[in-house]
Structures are given as structure tokens and as C-alpha cells.
Design brief:
Helix content is 22%, strand content 31%. It has 13 helices and 36 strands. The termini are far apart. It is globular, with a radius of gyration of 28 Å. Strands 1, 3, 4, 6, 7, 8, 9, 10, 24, 25 and 26 form an eleven-stranded mixed sheet that branches. A six-stranded antiparallel sheet has the order 11-23-13-19-16-17. It is α+β, with helices and mostly antiparallel strands.
Length: 644
């Protein structure tokens, strides 16, 4: 009897495992299917199993192959929904509910595409509050790399409707892009967000795309097929980082004193002073380890006891922050803005003590300038900039950075893009390039190769590929100079030679001190203008700012012609045109005068006889560049020379 029961259990188990239908994560409740194109629905089941789909009053049948895989094509569908799909085999029946038919966009790239609405929620409060929309849906692709083979499915993820709670985790660029499109066309929009902070372009390309054209990346990808190498690197990194932080904690005098330095009763009157914001390397020299900062703040009666917000700009690298001895928050890396909630009853009238413990792992540590440092309550603010007390808690040797294996060539393509390739899409929006700025010349070939690679793998022809040109970043320079960021922007500009591509210029909405500028609404809007023209055929839409076309030299002046002038060129603010530079045969660029005449720009410098080249906004941060078309879209940076 026991033997029969064991056999029966194993037989029943085998039916359960091999008979049931398995669907990819994308084919699930709430999905958005691409309209007006033949679709694929696919999955896995028992070998030789008959699969049936019932959808929109039609029945579709197929049989699984020897590997248990199946695939069914659906005809072109019109926008609408919600609908329900029924999928059956001989044993199981699955229902997929709340399906919409509309337009599906893949949003990809690095951190500026990944950056969620939560990070910019303080400037988009009304947009978040009004975000309820069941016809805009997001699918976040989980981070995954694979160097050995393309993944067939994602390790997780689900379709999510937009509302004030869920939108906080959506890509801010992709959300504003989708909102613009929905408001114009009233078509369901699905966003598949496959992005990862810090990722270079080569991580998003397939092995065969790199093999011939970029052999150095191909060789690196081959190295990481060795799982023992990956495990060794991870183990060494983990031990090194843990040991560094263990030693830091043991050496930190701020935790060793009988009265901890965050205790408001601790006597710190003899501590030296330092000015915040700023980098302490400028005042103390290059010090890595941990520094403590204290400031006494006088809180007025109307703010005492009230819930408030402590805003500490950005801090390099990590911080732990205390108010009146109470821990109020910490951030473990340098990029997020510090905005800590102060609960009701914490602030008291009169003297209050703020203490910030800052860890610097390497490079310069400190408080990023030109950011807000304040306590905020009901639009009343107490400025925290100025002199603070400080003390060195522990000095350490610089911590070598972690090896980000996810960023290695091929890995993200196999792990995050390959599982999407059967899912039909309208197009791609892409925001990436910061991690390739140390190799800008290579990006001229690498980026177009990526676009071609994705189009080939998706097998949908030259679908729209819309991308964001790098924003202005870093300190502005007083004189014309060379710039890797300018070179990479030029590489992006050159990619417009590929069909059905569009570039959103953002040279005017970056931040010199933040690689993650907060204005994501205009980025999404500019991408949507490109989509309206390229993907939706709106020929009358002005979707781009001026793009350099050609030049003519006449009477010691250079006359520039442009495409995408819209209803005409303009200098923003009706000011003098800025950030044009001119050079003669000595190839030395100097600032130039420039003026608009009809749809042309005339550039000159009376001291440059026989000029031969012009550059515009050619810098890391061309903060004064102000050439626009009258539709309010900025001109792309450019140069007329090809001097390396």
C-alpha cells in the first residue's frame, strides 16, 4: 500500500509540474499589448501539449515543441480594453485579466532613466497627486545579468497601474513621457522600464554585436562567463568593504567616547569650525574616513514641536543624521538628496543640536555647494549654511571601489533585454551616456551599434529609438576648452543619421553640481514631442531644437545654417547669443560674437582673421548657451571642425 501511494504521489506530481502552463512575467494581469501589429503570446508546458488561447471572441491553437515551448500569433488589434484572455492545455486553465491594447515603450539606460518619481517628489507634488490613471501602466524589469546565455524570462516584475502611491517608484522621465502621450492620444500606454544606474552602453549589447566590432568588450564578456571569477571578485570586494567599515567603526572616536558625539549634552565648544556647504579637502586637505559635524540651531516658538523637514542638499559619500540626539535618517551613497522628516515633538523652542556623521570612502568628501541646507516648515525656512563645528572621528586609507559586475559587457542585455524580445513594442526611449564619457570617440560607433543591435533582435524593423542627449554638468569654464562630455554629445548627435531616431536636447536643464538633475518633466515632454513626430506621424510638430547643418565663410565671418528651426531662431531671453567660439588656422578657439539673421547665425571675432571653425556650447557645462527656436527648444551643441 505504501509503495502504491509513493507511485501515485510521484505520478500526480509529474502531471502538476509538466502539465501546467507557464507564462513569461510580461504575459500577466494588467499587461498592455501593442496595437496595430501582429503579436506573440508564448510560454512553456508539457512536450506535445495542445495550447489554446481565447481572446476577443477568437480561438487560437498550437502545440508545444520537443522542449515544451509554445508560441501563438495574434492578429493586429485596435486600442482599447480592458479585456480578458483564457489560455488552456489538457489539464490547466489560466485567465489573464485587465488587459489593455495600446502602445508599449521600452525605457532603458542608466540612472537618469531609472531615477524614480520618489526622488523628485518634492518638486512634483501636484503631478503626483493627480497621477491616477489606469490606462498608464509600468513594468519594472528586475536587475539581472547573465554572461553565458540570454535569459528566456525575467526573475520577477508585474504590471502596475498609475496612482499617487505606485507612481513614486516609476521612472520619472518615462512617467512624464507616457503622461504627455496619453493626454494627447488617449491611447493606453505601457512602459517597460529596463534600466540600471551606472551601466555603460556595452552592458546592454548582445555578445554577437560586440564580437567583431568591439573585440575588447567581447573578450571581457568571455572572462565573466566564469562563475568562479565572479564569485571570487564578489567575495574579495565584500571582505574588503566589510573590513574597512569594521575598522572605521572601531576607530571612530565619535562612538568610543562615554558620551557619544551625537548626544546633545556632549561638550563640543572647543571643536574647530568649518564652512558648510563645501568640500573639506579645500579646508582640511584630502581626508577619508569619518568626520562629525555639529551645529546649534535656534528654533522659534511657532516651529517648536511641529513636524518639519531637514534638508541637507547632497553629501559625499554617506551620512547619518541626528537631531537633539535622535537619529532622523541616513543615506548610504552620495547621489540622493537628503530630505529627512522631523517628527512632531522633536524640535523644541530655543536651542536644538543637529549632528551629521559623514563617511568619505575615497576622493573628496563634503557638502555639495549650491544645494539647499535648511529646516523647512509650512514654507518657513531656517538656513543652515554657514559655520559648523567639526571633528575628525577616524582617518582611513581610501576604500577601493566595488567591482560592479552588472556593468560588464553583454550581462544586462542577456539578463534584462533578451526576455523582452518577443514582446511587441512601439519603440524605445533611452537615457544613457554618462558612464561612457571617458570613451567618447568610441561612442560614435558603440551607440549606433546598440541601436542596430536592438532593432535586429526585436525583429520589428527600424522602430522609433528616441534618446536624451547629455545635460550640462560640472563647473563652467571661463575659456573655450576641450570636453569629453561635449564629444559624447556629438556622438549622440551623429546617431541621428540612423532612420527613425530622435534626440532630446537637455543642455539647458542640467545642474552643474548634480549628475542627476531634478527636472525630469521637461525631459519627458521633449521625448514625447519626438515620439509625436517620429512614431505617430505628426508632421507639423516641432520636435527638436536647431541642429547645425552647414557653414559658409564670408568677410572674416562664419555663417551657420540649421535644420529644425521651427518658426525661427531666437536668443532665449532676448539677450546676446552666448557660448559661440571661433578659431583660425592656429586652431585656437576664442569667444566670439554671434547674431541671428533670419534662419542663420553669423559668428565673428574681430581679432580672428580668416576664421575656419566655430563651436557652440562645446563644454561640460555651457551654462550660458542660449540659441533656441521660437518653440522654446534648445539648439544641440555642435562644432564645424573635426579636430581630434
Amino acid at each position: 500500500m505504501k509503495k502504491f501511494f509513493s507511485f501515485y504521489f510521484i505520478f500526480f506530481l509529474s502531471i502538476t509540474i509538466y502539465g501546467e502552463i507557464k507564462l513569461p512575467k510580461l504575459i500577466s494581469d494588467g499587461m498592455v499589448l501593442q496595437r496595430d501589429i501582429e503579436l506573440k503570446i508564448w510560454g512553456w508546458a508539457k512536450k506535445g501539449e495542445k495550447i489554446s488561447i481565447v481572446f476577443l471572441d477568437s480561438i487560437y491553437n498550437t502545440t508545444t515543441n520537443d522542449s515544451g515551448k509554445w508560441e501563438i500569433s495574434l492578429p493586429k488589434l485596435i486600442a482599447g480594453g480592458p479585456h480578458e484572455m483564457k489560455i488552456t492545455d489538457s489539464k490547466d486553465t489560466l485567465f489573464i485579466k485587465d488587459i489593455l491594447i495600446g502602445d508599449v515603450w521600452v525605457a532603458s539606460g542608466q540612472s537618469n532613466m531609472e531615477l524614480p518619481m520618489r526622488r523628485v517628489s518634492h518638486i512634483y507634488k501636484s503631478e503626483i497627486a493627480s497621477s491616477e490613471n489606469s490606462f498608464i501602466r509600468f513594468f519594472k524589469v528586475p536587475e539581472k545579468y547573465n554572461f553565458n546565455k540570454p535569459e528566456e524570462d525575467l526573475k520577477g516584475g508585474k504590471w502596475t497601474k498609475t496612482n499617487p502611491e505606485t507612481v513614486l517608484e516609476f521612472s520619472s522621465v518615462a512617467y512624464f513621457f507616457s503622461r504627455e502621450l496619453y493626454e494627447k492620444y488617449k491611447i493606453p500606454i505601457g512602459i517597460i522600464n529596463a534600466s540600471l544606474g551606472g551601466s555603460p552602453a556595452e552592458a546592454w549589447m548582445s555578445e554577437d554585436a560586440l564580437k567583431d566590432q568591439f573585440p575588447h568588450y567581447y573578450e571581457e564578456a568571455l572572462r565573466f562567463k566564469d562563475s568562479s571569477l565572479i564569485n571570487k571578485i564578489k567575495k574579495e570586494d565584500r571582505e574588503r568593504i566589510q573590513n574597512w567599515y569594521k575598522e572605521l567603526r572601531e576607530k571612530d572616536m565619535g562612538y568610543k567616547e562615554s558620551e557619544k558625539w551625537y548626544n546633545p549634552k556632549f561638550e563640543a565648544s572647543k571643536w574647530p569650525e568649518i564652512k558648510i556647504p563645501g568640500y573639506w579637502a579645500n579646508q582640511l586637505g584630502p581626508v577619508n574616513g569619518v568626520l562629525w559635524f555639529r551645529r546649534e540651531v535656534n528654533i522659534p516658538k511657532f516651529m517648536a514641536g511641529q513636524p518639519a523637514e531637514l534638508i541637507l542638499g547632497r553629501i559625499i559619500d554617506a551620512d547619518s543624521t541626528f537631531v537633539n540626539g535622535v537619529f532622523v535618517g541616513n543615506t548610504t551613497y552620495q547621489y540622493p538628496p537628503r530630505r529627512y522628516k522631523l517628527p512632531e515633538g522633536l524640535l523644541k523652542e530655543g536651542k536644538n543640536i543637529i549632528v551629521i556623521r559623514v563617511i568619505s570612502e575615497r576622493g573628496i568628501g563634503g557638502f555639495v555647494p549650491d544645494k539647499p541646507y535648511e529646516i523647512s516648515y509650512n514654507n518657513k525656512k531656517i538656513d543652515l549654511k554657514g559655520k559648523w563645528k567639526y571633528q575628525l572621528g577616524a582617518k582611513m586609507e581610501p576604500l577601493l571601489p566595488e567591482t560592479f559586475i552588472s556593468w560588464k559587457p553583454v550581462g544586462l542585455f542577456n539578463g534584462m533585454i533578451a526576455p523582452l524580445l518577443k514582446y511587441r513594442i512601439k519603440g524605445v526611449i533611452w537615457y544613457q551616456g554618462e558612464s561612457n564619457t571617458d570613451r567618447p570617440i568610441e561612442y560614435r560607433e558603440l551607440f549606433p551599434a546598440l541601436i542596430k543591435n536592438w532593432r535586429e533582435k526585436w525583429q520589428e524593423g527600424d522602430f522609433p529609438f528616441l534618446f536624451v542627449q547629455l545635460s550640462n554638468f560640472m563647473e563652467a569654464k571661463k575659456e573655450p576648452s576641450e570636453s569629453n562630455w561635449a564629444l559624447l554629445r556629438e556622438a549622440q548627435l551623429k546617431a541621428l543619421s540612423l532612420p527613425n531616431t530622435g534626440m532630446a536636447v537637455t543642455i539647458d536643464i542640467g545642474e552643474w553640481n548634480d549628475i542627476h538633475p531634478l527636472n525630469k518633466k521637461d525631459v519627458g515632454k521633449r521625448l514625447s514631442l519626438l515620439a509625436q513626430k517620429i512614431a505617430y506621424g505628426e508632421e507639423n510638430v516641432v520636435s527638436s531644437g536647431p541642429i547645425y547643418k552647414s557653414m559658409e565663410i564670408k568677410d572674416n565671418k562664419i555663417i551657420l545654417s540649421f535644420k529644425e528651426v521651427g518658426s525661427g531662431l531666437m536668443a532665449k531671453g532676448n539677450k546676446e547669443l552666448k557660448h559661440f567660439a571661433i578659431a583660425g588656422h592656429n586652431k585656437k578657439f576664442v569667444w566670439a560674437k554671434a547674431k541671428i539673421e533670419k534662419d542663420k547665425v553669423i559668428v565673428w571675432n574681430k581679432n580672428v582673421k580668416n576664421p575656419i571653425a566655430v563651436r557652440y556650447a562645446w563644454a561640460d557645462n555651457p551654462e550660458e548657451a542660449n540659441l533656441y527656436n521660437k518653440e522654446g527648444l534648445p539648439a544641440s551643441p555642435f562644432r564645424t571642425d573635426d579636430w581630434e
